[in-house]
Amino acid sequence: MSVNVTETLNAALGSYGLMKQLIQDRINELTRELRNAENGQNVSLAGANIQQEGSHKQRKFTAAARRKMAKSQQLRHAKRREAQAAANQEAPMPASTPARKPNKRRLSAAGRRAISAATKKRWAEFHAQKAAAAAPKARTQKAQTA
């Protein structure tokens, strides 16, 4: 087992040594480019894998092209406004007398009294049932304590 561990560790050490050498080479290359940049020489960033800020090209339009786009936009909007105005003119005009709103339903005094009486009756029955159910329990508790 120790032979396998030794071989594995030696292989890992060799692999890390190779990676260390690649990293060191890359550091040396970047250092050289930095010195060149400080001396005012042109530096190629092709190998640096660094994206410069604002590196994408922005599309530029000539003044004539921008005027042409603005004019077509104005024509599109004018056409849309005309279509909306025509649709509004075709819509039927509202009647001279506005439609009446339906009357609100209101509760009469007699109806309110009937609902109140029914509610009071239901609560009275509820409390009577509750008292009847509690009475036998009270009797048994008195019998047990006596």
Helical content band: 55-70%
What's the gyration radius in Å? 47 Å
| H and E string | HHH
Pick out the low-confidence regions: none
- Spatial separation of the terminal alpha carbons: 87 Å
The count of β-strands is: 0
- By secondary-structure content and strand pairing, the structural class works out as mainly alpha
The overall pLDDT average reads 83
**Assembly form of the protein:** single chain
- Largest beta sheet, briefly? none
Tell me, what's the shape? flat
Task: Work out the strand percent.
Answer: under 5%
Helix count? Answer: 3
Fill in the keyword field for this structure:
mainly alpha; 3 helices; single chain
Could you explain how this protein is built, in words?
This protein has helices spanning 2-38, 63-90, 109-145. The longest helix has 37 residues, at 2-38. By secondary structure, it is an all-alpha fold. It contains 3 helices and no strands. The chain has a domain at 1-35. The two termini are 87 Å apart.
Write the layout of secondary structure elements.
Elements: H1 2-38, H2 63-90, H3 109-145
How would you summarize this macromolecular structure in one to three sentences?
The protein has 146 residues and is mainly α.
